[in-house]
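Q: Convert this sequence to structure tokens.
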Amino acid sequence: MLESYLFSLTYLVFPIVIFSAYRKLGLSFREVSITNAVILSLLIFSYVGILPLYFYWDAYRYNIGVVDRTIILYIFFASFWAILSITLVFWVLRSVFPVPRRRVPAFNNSRSLTRLEVSLSTLIFMACVGVFLIYINSVNNVALFVAIFGGEQSIAAARSSMTNAYEGNYHWYRFFINDVAIFISYCFYANHLMKKSIVSRLMFFITFVGSCVFLLASAQKAPIIWYFLGLYLVYAIVMNEGHVHVKGTFFLILLGFSALIALYMVFMGVDAFFDAMKSIFSRAFAAGISASYFYFEFFPAHKDYLLGSSLPNPGGIFPFEPYQLTKELMAWRFPQDAERGVVGSSPTVFWGEAYANFSWIGIFFVPILMGMVIYCYHFLVYYLENTPFKVGLIAWLVIFFRYVASTGFSSFVVNLTFFCFLVFVVVLIFISSRLRFKVIY
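A:
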């Protein structure tokens, strides 16, 4: 009883301390920035869900085996430390390396895209359409069509065959379809907000429709919601000087929640409205953090700590085969899915991979490293000239780094496609600026 009381008290006080510290430091969570996205994502997706797990309020998580309160307390302490340490790192680095206001893009200090920039961006988006068509032609069943029209193959199996179980270099298809195309769409939206011409509206409309088709094809629910959130962030950067409004945020949450209910009923076969609501709340707040429970169960009881073997090995330059951590955990915990041919994955908050590799030492040190790496990106991106490219990149990075609450740390430290994307953006800006690279000092 005393343990539960102390847990509840600490759980409720900690977020208040974080928000109070932000206000004392003159910071605001309403500001669109990579650092804010990281802290808020960790609080929402790797902290909020711990309370219902501890008190067994989430029946589905309880039924799949999340029952040991000692392990749930481990999760709580790990999340507590991760949020606290990253916040402190951001505060220290912001004090030493602040971002001047003149580097923050807005309607009154940014220019729209030139003809050359529009032409190059259009060609790149057309290339993404071509890649998408090749990708669709390479799969047996398109999950979106299975969900709408039905078919012999289940939606889960069709989705799996297009993502985790795809036989080929799915990450490169994803690079063009989910990364480059979405970035171009953000840029055209920012350009439309700055210019408001018929051509700018048409270009955004084309990329908007294309991006929606790209994201819905595999019958995944979250990507389309994050895309819409990214569009809202672009609007906030250009029209609201980089700040989100409470009313706008509330409307977006309501719209996103309604869209998720519809997607759950179509893609997941959930017939009842309230069942869809429960599934959404469980998936949003508890799914990611509850997966870390199985990391504690699996390591080291069933497998020794990986000692770095889950890290990517691009091009096989190192003498080891990367351990497919999320897939192996999913196959161990839900063998019945593997028997049905569904290749699932069990990603969790970034410190889960740190624990799987380096035990509690990883949980202690990796958040500090992550804080430094993330702030480096936050600081450097604001040196770019204030254009729609910069606005689109900031929105894209905000959405990307919110994955700290649901993806292993190696995705942010050693990620070939992410680095390729950054190189692509830099080269695009350099070429479209006629081989000149402007920065704001």
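The radius of gyration is 22 Å.
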